[in-house]
Amino acid sequence: MIAYQNVHIFFGTEQDNINKNTYPLNGQQSFTSIADRLMVDNLYYVNQVHSTKGVIVDKNTKQNALTSVDADFLITDNICTALAVFTADCTPVMLYDPVVSVIAAVHAGWKGLAADVIQHALFALQKNYDVQLNNIQAFIGPSAKSCCYEIQNNVYDIFKNMERVEICSFVSQKEGKFFLDLPACAKQQLIVGGISLGNINRQFAGCTICNKKYCSYRREQNSLRNVNVIVMR
């Protein structure tokens, strides 16, 4: 659990996993256990589809109404409203503006990163809450790293052709194969999006593939997911 000013961030492990194919998700024991630890009634989440779409959670939003909404980031300025994204090698990115008092949870796999999902989330924060990018604190959670995450040439080509991105900072080559570092890619996109390097926390950005305390689809090929949450007090 990360406590930063009036925000709490939880990057989950295999011990707190949920099964994405067991419904309802909020009926699973680990789901309610995490909510209890964060002292909230529920976790707000969407149907993640590797897109650049997001949702605003306000005081009138019903948690059950979001579960079928296709999106990959959530934003709220509500106190005690916990935003959750589920990962198993994709990157959870949590955003917080302490000046405006608004938070966001972003689900960023390679497809989302290639489509600039982080910049879409930042734009939504600016458009809806008039945030100043230099005030935003970003926290990058555990995901697939270049020590383990081999990608095919077509994926490499997608990132290579992206504008304003230094691919050498998150893709390495070993024995003719390409390896992608998702936390490093997320960091690069945050910087490109206008977030100060000093405001980006990567302390918890371990590799989900080689560290077996995390759920990993690449390693296990199953439906278990890490639960990642941000909530404002």
Describe the structure.
The structure is a single chain. The chain has 233 residues and is α+β, with helices and mostly antiparallel strands. The protein has a single domain (2-143, 199-232), classed as 4-Layer Sandwich (CNF1/YfiH-like putative cysteine hydrolases). The protein contains seven helices and 15 strands. The protein has helices spanning 29-37, 63-66, 110-114, 117-129, 153-160, 182-193, 217-220, and strands at residues 2-4, 7-11, 18-19, 43-44, 54-57, 73-76, 82-87, 91-97, 102-108, 137-140, 150-151, 171-174, 177-180, 200-201, 224-232. The longest helix has 13 residues, at 117-129. The model has no long low-confidence stretch (mean pLDDT 95).
List keywords for this structure.
CNF1/YfiH-like putative cysteine hydrolases; six-stranded mixed sheet; alpha+beta; 15 strands; 233 residues; 24% helix
List the helices and strands and how they pair.
Blueprint: E1 2-4, E2 7-11, E3 18-19, H1 29-37, E4 43-44, E5 54-57, H2 63-66, E6 73-76, E7 82-87, E8 91-97, E9 102-108, H3 110-114, H4 117-129, E10 137-140, E11 150-151, H5 153-160, E12 171-174, E13 177-180, H6 182-193, E14 200-201, H7 217-220, E15 224-232
Could you provide a short overview of the structure?
This protein has 233 residues and is of the alpha+beta class.
